[in-house]
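Q: What would this complex look like in 3D?
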Amino acid sequence: MWLKYIASTKKEALLLLRDKAGLAMLFIMPMALVFIMSLLQDSTLKKLEEQNTPVIVINQDTGSFGKSIVEGLETAGFFIVSQQINGKTPSEEDLRQLVNEGKYRVGIIIRPGATEALRQKIKYRIKQQFPEEERKLLDLGAISDTTLPHVDVYFDPVTKSNFKHAVISALRQFSAGVVAEMVFDTYADLLNELVDIQLKQAGGFDEMIDFTQQYATPEKKNLIIPNSTQHNVPAWTIFAMFFIVIPLAGNIIHERESGLSMRLKTIPGSNLAVIMGKTTVYFIVGILQAGFMLLIGMYILPLFGMPMLRIGSGLFAFMIITVSVSLAASGYGILIGTIATTQEQSSIFGSISVVILAAIGGIWVPTFMMSGLMITVSRLSPLNWGLNGYYDIFLRSAGISDILHYVLLLLSFFLGCIFLSYLYNRYKKMKS
Amino acid sequence: MEENVIIEINGLTKWYKNAAKPAVDHLNLAIRKGEIFGLLGPNGAGKTTTISILSTQISDSEGKVTVNGLDLKKDADQIKKIIGIVPQDIALYPTLTAKENLDFFGHMYGLHGKALDDKIRQCMQDFGLEDRMDKKIKTFSGGMKRRVNLIAGILHNPRILILDEPTVGIDVQSKIVILEYLKNMNKNNGITIIYTSHLMEEAEQFCSQIAIIDEGRLIEKGNPAKLIEKYESCNNLEDIFLLLTGKRLRD
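A: Here is my prediction, written as structure tokens for the whole assembly.
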């Protein structure tokens, strides 16, 4: 049995090593795919995360309100603020057009006199708090109920409502500090007038609560911040690993078509050694693919401005999930090779089925962008099990026990494919 | 069982799925040890089906077959050890060298080490291929491929060798080398050879016994020379073949 297994493994390895086109498909094409798709999806994911959103601002207000809004946008860390186009302040029409064309995702116009209007509004409201007879004692000038200070906000037509809500909330937050300061100044003036107490200038009303942001990861020291590399590298690695279905299934069909399979069946003993030899070689190919992809994520993508892939503390878990994905892919290849009757059938069905499993499994479009139904469907794809396992390792510092259910699913898939292949072969032998 | 019979076929019938008639229809044959037995017939006669059943590649629908006293259905693994198969197709890996191919098939039969190396070297030499040992099969001529295809089937010294049209599509020189080698194997080692062919002249010279089958049924059996004597109007085996099977095209 061992002699047969070793001979079969050696034979498969030699066949693969001499198939230059097959090797290119197994290694160069997936590496190119990881590289290109990571670069493409990086920008997409950045858009999705609404990071560095370009904003154009026309600040017609000369007071502190307009200044605070602009400063707030500039210091928020996720807006790129422009106030001029080609060295000139754009017109309102220009602003609307630029946003409509998608060159800026948000356009903001702060109307003239907004600061003064706000101040008047605050004074009016405070005056309304005092009894009628006391108001005459206060020197609040001739205050009337003015219109609210006005800020126009334009959005790119493709903008989602939650993003619009987030931007409006941010603007309210930036203006809240100015409002608080104006309220404080008004009361300070009143105190000075009524009891002759001079209050000092105050500020920082927009930072009265400490919101601590953190990820719900158990190991703080190994906290991995999710980024596009951590989605794309494992996603396309799994995709590439499952693409071994095509050469593996093709190899099985070639043996059948050329009479090799018949010759092997006339040799005493089980055919298991032959199947194990194939599985071993393509399993090792899958492991090598994962290794190469990992190196690309760690050393090549950062050269192109992409975030570096970091495994964190889950190296062993990474190896276990990689082994499981590779076995699952090999099992699927053997099943396709057993059921398909021609090379054409196996290559077309193999590639299309992998693309479908990848699509529903969150490889092309991450599952967090899918609808509820599709998220449920995605859980049926073995590529999704592998991807979730990698996500858990990269993003949640998962250990073996955390990814065990994915490992078991993938190994069950592998064994299921082998069992189905065995049943199908028996069925065919009975029918022949 | 008749004395010295190594293969006995009784009432062998094979139906393929959805077929209108059986591929092999109640076939009875007895092949004795050390015979070179030719299984002849037009296309679709049931030759390949019969040897596929004998070599355990497919199962029969009906009948009983014993090989060296072993039941084909019950003792398939034991039977596989004593038979060698040379399929009609070149069942070799084209991108592997001749040595790598033969190493692989030898290992699959449980052979290894010096014994296997010596056997491969000897066979390659006998077939005039010693200088092609490390060349890939895809670079071989049709005749060379046929010879390596044959070597792969005899590495484990089988007692029964089943050949499906081993000389089809090759040059005369290769054909002579193959047939001479097989005759020597039969003479020196007592190996029983079962062989199918469309080439009547070749079968007449090569076989000690022949069976002509048509539409799955046995229609004649015997020594070629004796059959020619029997059919007075026929000058050779081809005449007998045409007399018995007709000139109607078969596919």
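A: To summarize the key features: Strands of chain A lie at 53-59, 79-82, 106-110, 151-155. Chain A has 16 helices and four strands.
Q: Very helpful, thank you.
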